[in-house]
Amino acid sequence: PKGATFQSTCLFDEHLLTRYPDSTVALVESPKNALFGALAFQQLTWVATGNKTALRREVLQPLQGRDVIVIPDRDAVADWQKAIDGMADLANFRVSDFCSTKAPADQSKFDIADFLQQQCMSLLQ
Description:
The chain is of the alpha/beta class.
């Protein structure tokens, strides 16, 4: 329906968690970030929430007992840190401020895919 918002009930690429049960997980917002991250950092298992508001216990339940690096978009670091703090019993979460530290000053919206695209473009120049 018009105006309805989609609420994720599972993680993008969640099926990889059973395929790689011992690997560290990288948790990001968008599937685009998970795909770019998986290409650049193949030692991690990349999953995505699908949107900023899907960082909920029922969505993250499959991460139970895992080591998880949380890589929020630049504009979501504080919100995601607060949400993760309330779920510390679920997994070994570590929230990264990578996107905040790597973002150009004029870009309030910046994610790991943006960073990786910049790196690729600089190699081509």
